[in-house]
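Dear colleagues,

As part of the handover before I leave the project, I'm documenting each prediction I ran so the next person doesn't have to rerun anything. This entry is a single chain, and its sequence is reproduced below.
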Amino acid sequence: MFTDAFASLPVGRNDELRILNVGCGLGFLSCVSAEFYKNARITGIDTFEHASLRRSSPKRAKENARILGFSDRIDFNKGDVFRFTPVEKFDIIISNLVFHNFGKIRFKVYSRL
């Protein structure tokens, strides 16, 4: 499903992209992105405080990326998307249900990013 969504975007698989993964958790979607976009650099942010992934942490996400061979292109950081101030511009912003879980305040996040 994610690869179909990526394929529908107006960017190439080999483009040098900057991707932001909001609510990256254990890094699954970041790794899927790195697999699809061969030259992308991915930044994952998460509070790592959600009950659904109690044992998630930047360390575990980094280990997952290392195991899959993407650690050189993915960086995971602890942070709150409401306080996150990007120092660079991103070509693609992705999330796996995190924006949906914010309810109406998700529009504040949309406008910030």
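The radius of gyration is 13 Å. Helices lie at 2-7, 28-36, 58-67, 98-101, 106-112.

All the best with the project,
I.
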